[in-house]
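Format notes (please read before filing issues)

Several people have asked whether sequences and structure tokens are stored in separate files. They are not. Every record keeps both together, in the order shown below: the sequence lines, then the token lines. Line labels are part of the format and must not be stripped during preprocessing.
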Amino acid sequence: MSERLVRLACTAAVAAQAVLAPVPALAVPDAQPPVAELLTDLQQLYRQAEQATETYNAAEERLNRQRAEVIRLDGELAGARRSLHSSKDEAGRLARQQYQSSTGISPYVRLLLARDPQHALDEGHVIGELARERAKTVGRLADGEKKQADLARKARKALDTRLLLAEGQKKQRDEVRDRLLDVERMLASLTPDQLTALAALERTETADAQRKLTVSGALSATTPPPSQEGDRAVRYAVRQLGKPYEWGAAGPKAYDCSGLTSQAWDHAGTPIPRTSQEQWAHLPHVPLNELRPGDLVVYFPEATHVALYLGNGRVVQAPRPGAKVKVSPIAANPILGAVRPDPKARPLAHYTPPTVPEGATEGPDEGFGASQPTVPTPT
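Then the structure lines:
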């Protein structure tokens, strides 16, 4: 075959592939953008995914609280109905007693005609007590009916709210799914060499940020000891090293960033809010130069990522989809600030840090070179 025919055949094959091959959702242009630009785009996608995840987690927390409120109101309503039924039975019993004791003669005439006036007086007292008891029972009956109606109305409203929250949670779940699909499509569009270059560039950027933070004096040269609760939180987090990141997960097999920190402090005996944004909003802030193990380091202006401080400029974190729980430099992400779940707890007099397993600092903080992020399946 001549050289001209070979060129024509290759051209035809390429054209056929262009027609028959499915077009990817995020097509990669012939002229690839610089690695730094790719890194910025991918970091932005991860940030959007994590922000959507934290919003989903907040929706899940609200839904859980509403479920508990519905259960509580249903229990109160059931109790009110039992009490109302009991009051009705009591009112009926008293009505029968009064009917059986009634003679149609006034108490004054009965007293005049009685052979034993004292007995008549005692009998009248008993009848009066029965009447007063009946009046109280009727009052309780009316109150019970009102309480049951109020509780029934609140229970219906609580159930309606729960349904609305469940619908909102579904939308947030779909938002996370869309953002993770964007990440997956971009990762799939990159070559192995590009992924390697991205990981290397981000490691370089992290090392530079860590060096600048250390040189600035923002971190203390020595790490003060944690409280007893902080020590327990750190040891729990260290035991989770190597477990995969999974959006919306709070253990024990997988975690997202705030799932790890909230569970660590829950196991330490100091429950804290579930999401990074709530942790930043509701826990006392501490300066970076006063950090002690167990404190939480919060990242990005929207407080969408969080890690647990290990000491000596390192954190334990669930970095992002595709990565695992690991030890990272504190400057692995742009720092917003830090919070302390136990501000009033005294530091330990003597502290021995937990042993960090070999390889805990290895592996990507960024998740580029690991398996692609798991995209949640709609349910």
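For reference, the curators noted about this record: The domain at 35-181 is CATH 1.10.287.620 (Helix Hairpins). The first strand starts at residue 285 and ends at 286.
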